[in-house]
Design a protein that fits this description.
alpha/beta; eight-stranded mixed beta sheet; 8 helices
């Protein structure tokens, strides 16, 4: 089994720098300077817009709405629509060098979606892979959770995105664990400004379904789940940014 080094980032580098650092790691991997790696961190309040969002007439108003609610608006390189996260979420950046990175690109969405859903199930969340009607930043391989009392109520818990370059790939996941209200509020304001329809009831956090669940518990579950994919070893994040 191949080795995967886990880097637990102790604090945010700042909203924009956190996004940029993921791309820097991808470039290191494609140059052969970084072995397969997993970076985990809790981000600053951010709304990451897709490229299509930035071209809509309401984008400036959406940016202003984000700032008014304490979220930094940024435009990410990957596709999709606006997604929001803050320190009650866990970002997982999985980077690997690969001579033909486009191969199995779609399969990664399925594989890692199932892996992450399994991590949530391991801590007691009723989680599964699949888009739910009306979700924000919709995706075929989103991970959603079901309310154990009202199974018809499903909320999006994990969004995933991928960037493939010659010589490597980056697979990023955002897991919403705690404090869903600010995320729902900023997404409502952003999507309204952009003129995009969605159902705010689909936005939530894992601890809406399982009270007292926290980011640290989910982080440990994610690392353990990755142990089924690779031989996980802990790395020193300080050495990564030195």
């Amino acid at each position: 089994m191949a080795a995967l080094t886990v880097y637990r980032q102790p604090q945010t580098l700042g909203a924009a720098k956190d996004l940029d650092f993921a791309l820097e790691l991808l470039q290191r991997a494609r140059r052969g300077e970084l072995t397969p790696s997993l970076r985990l961190y809790r981000p600053e309040p951010t709304v990451a817009f897709g490229q299509r969002d930035a071209n809509l007439p309401g984008f400036k108003a959406a940016e202003e709405a984000c700032r008014n609610l304490g979220f930094e608006p940024l435009v990410r390189k990957a596709g999709g629509r606006a997604a929001a996260y803050h320190q009650g979420t866990l970002v997982v950046d999985h980077v690997e060098p690969h001579p033909d990175a486009i191969v199995k690109a779609k399969a990664r969405f399925s594989e890692f979606g199932e892996l992450l859903a399994g991590a949530l199930r391991s801590v007691g969340v009723h989680a599964a892979v699949g888009e739910i009607p009306g979700e924000y930043c919709p995706g075929e391989f989103s991970v959603h959770g079901e309310d154990p009392v009202f199974p018809a109520h499903r909320i999006k818990l994990i969004g995933t995105a991928q960037r493939v370059v010659s010589g490597g790939w980056l697979f990023s996941s955002v897991i919403v664990v705690e404090n869903s209200a600010p995320i729902r509020e900023v997404l409502t304001a952003s999507y309204e400004a952009l003129g995009l329809e969605w159902d705010p009831a689909t936005a939530g956090a894992a601890n809406d379904l399982l009270p007292h669940l926290d980011v640290a518990t989910v982080e440990d579950a994610v690392v353990q789940a990755y142990g089924t994919y690779a031989d996980v070893v802990e790395g020193d994040f300080g050495a990564l940014i030195a």
